[in-house]
Specification:
The protein is mainly alpha-helical and 341 residues long. The chain has 15 helices and 3 strands. It folds into 3 domains: 3-99, 434 Repressor (Amino-terminal Domain) (Orthogonal Bundle), CATH 1.10.260; 152-238, Muramoyl-pentapeptide Carboxypeptidase, domain 1 (Orthogonal Bundle), CATH 1.10.101.10; 249-329, Lysozyme (Orthogonal Bundle), CATH 1.10.530. The longest helix is centred in the middle third of the chain and has 27 residues, at 121-147. The protein starts with 14 loop residues before the first helix and ends in a 12-residue tail after the last helix. The chain crosses the membrane at residues 135-159.
Length: 341
């Protein structure tokens, strides 16, 4: 191991110094962010490159699990990792200790703060409120543009999602992420979806695109299709999910031209209008039902055809089923897709 991780772990007095030492560990290791991410995953940790970059770019104390993931990926021994964590806790204790006492310094009773007597509940609540306020301010700075014009209800939902980019479904994140939320917890979910092969804008906003990708992942993995992300979904996304590679647009277009020789341009135009030529597109209808894949077959249609949702997301099956419907009438009257304005 490098100098920053030998038996004598360097000491830091502030959060900024602590993060600087972690940067040294990463630099001396000679590993890229992606290499560290892969090694952390192999060791059973979750450390996306973007999360690592964010952590090392701040001057605040990272989460313990993130520190462990980084150090383990860089080859730090278990004993040394424990010393790193002990140092982090010492720094955190010094940062929070001044807030535990009201009024002037203890003076003659200076020894009292070291006394492990259970603190008064009121100061504890003050500390927690201060931490939450800091987390919210950070999220507002990052996602301010999204918050402009938002309703009070939306802001209330967002407060439940901020503050735990590094540790999903633990302190700071809701147990279930759902549409309408935004913040670092949603960012983490989106990063996992992208890493699993389901491309979605990584903007921290749990909108229809993210909901569509979550439902696609649930259908492809045989999970209950809820459109929300709970701990099970996040765990499955962390476990190198086996999401079949999606068809690129060129392959979809060529297949449509082969199966619809009578009107290939019309077939491409209809599929693009319905799904944007996205085989994994899932749309939720006003009545709560869903439509699946390139030609947006409904839940009822899938039931009649005797196929599951995973099958509906297969581009080859979806186009073949659309061809069967087209052959009955010779046109695309089965589908209704208004032209773009």
């Amino acid at each position: 191991m490098n100098d920053a991780g030998r038996d004598q772990v360097p000491q830091a007095a502030t959060a900024g110094e602590y993060v600087a030492l972690l940067r040294d560990v990463r630099r001396y290791s000679g590993l890229t962010y992606r290499e560290i991410s892969r090694r952390a995953s192999a060791a059973g940790h979750w450390l996306p490159p973007s999360t690592l970059a964010t952590m090392l770019g701040r001057t605040t104390l990272p989460r313990e699990r993130t520190i462990v993931a980084l150090l383990a990926a860089c080859g730090t021994s278990t004993a040394e990792i424990q010393r790193w964590i002990a140092m982090r806790r010492d720094i955190e204790a010094r940062l929070t200790e001044p807030s535990r006492w009201d009024g002037p310094a203890p003076g003659a009773d200076e020894a009292r703060p070291a006394d492990p007597v259970t603190p008064d509940p009121a100061p504890t609540r003050t500390i927690r409120r201060t931490r939450r306020r800091g987390l919210r301010l950070g999220a507002i700075a990052l996602f301010g543009a999204l918050a402009v014009g938002s309703s009070g209800a939306m802001l209330a939902g967002a407060a439940g999602t901020v503050g735990a980019t590094d540790e999903p479904t633990t302190e700071g994140c809701p147990l279930v992420l759902r549409q309408g939320m935004y913040g670092p917890c949603v960012l983490d979910l989106q990063e996992r979806l992208v890493a699993g092969g389901l491309h979605v804008p990584v903007d921290g906003w749990f909108g229809p695109d993210t909901a569509s990708r979550v439902m696609a992942f649930q259908a492809l993995g045989g999970l209950p299709v809820s459109g929300t992300a709970d701990g099970r979904v996040l765990d499955e996304l962390s476990a190198d999910p086996a999401v079949p590679a999606t068809w690129p647009e060129e392959r979809i277009s060529k297949h449509l031209w082969r199966l619809f020789p009578e009107d290939p341009a019309g077939a491409v135009r209809m599929a693009r209008c319905l799904s944007g030529l996205d085989p994994y597109r899932v749309e939720v209808q006003p009545d709560g039902s869903r439509r699946w894949g390139l030609f947006q077959f409904s839940d009822v249609e899938l039931s009649r055809l005797g196929v599951d949702r995973r099958t509906a997301l297969d581009a080859g099956w979806n186009i073949g089923a659309a061809r069967d419907l087209w052959s009955r009438s010779g046109d695309f009257g089965h589908w209704h897709c208004p032209p773009a304005p």
